[in-house]
Amino acid sequence: SQQGEEDPQALSIQEGENATMNCSYKTSINNLQWYRQNSGRGLVHLILIRSNEREKHSGRLRVTLDTSKKSSSLLITASRAADTASYFCATALARTTSGTYKYIFGTGTRLKVLA
Amino acid sequence: GAVVSQHPSWVICKSGTSVKIECRSLDFQATTMFWYRQFPKQSLMLMATSNEGSKATYEQGVEKDKFLINHASLTLSTLTVTSAHPEDSSFYICSARALRLSGSPSGVLYNEQFFGPGTRLTVL
């Protein structure tokens, strides 16, 4: 079963506005990553936040992590039409008995930025 | 940066044939690669974890005889969809995990995945 649930499922905003997407997960994690996917394309890694970090910035992106609530948020400031894409969170579950991390993806948020 | 390629980028085949998809890490070594499938407008579902030199670990509900995974070297993993059927039509994405040492004196390891561009499989 999927680890992460994302909210909202779809978001439509005007260019220049901020976009906030939330991700909730169920079990303990090592780190959480956010990815972007343009329609029919592969994934682009945006940002990684470790379980001992609370906030991280990268350009117009701001990610927060609240391990007590098992949730993370991705904020895109001053959005552009080119930000239109699907955004996924992925959680790296704690090391399995085989010694390998598993990455489980959330359900995704489809963001549409209107020019 | 770390680049992962997939080949082919798309394939159309007849029902009953087998299709092999390659995943290569071009400028780094990947002891672990992951295979995902994605249906239209849905998320990525992890199918299996592929470790170099050992058998793949399949997720619950994924038929290992149907989806054969071979991780023959530190830069190549292959997924073979055997006896493909229309319901196997999907977008298949691989990722390779690079291990990096942080700059801290404790030498903390952390993981980052790099994704391939995906392979769209259509089974007629």
In short:
The complex is a heterodimer of chains A (115) and B (124). Chain A has 115 residues and is an all-beta fold.
Largest interface by residue count? Answer: A-B, 27 and 27 residues
The total strand number of chain A stands at 11
Fraction in beta strands of chain A: over 45%
Structural class of chain A: mainly beta
Largest sheet of chain B: 7 strands, mixed
- The tally of helices of chain A reads 0
Gyration radius of chain A, rounded: 14 Å
Q: What report would you give on this structure?
A:
- The complex is a heterodimer of chains A (115) and B (124).
- The N and C termini of chain A lie far apart (37 Å).
- Chain A is mainly beta and 115 residues long.
- The mean pLDDT of chain A is 89.
- In chain A, the strands form 2 sheets. In chain A, strands 2, 4, 5, 9, 10 and 11 form a 6-stranded mixed sheet that branches. A 5-stranded antiparallel sheet of chain A has the order 1-3-8-7-6, with no helix packed on it.
- By secondary structure, chain B is an all-beta fold.
- Chain B contains no helices and 11 strands.
- The termini of chain B are far apart.
- About 5% of the residues of chain B have low confidence.
- Chains A and B meet through β4, β5, β9 and β10 of A and β4, β5, β9 and β10 of B.
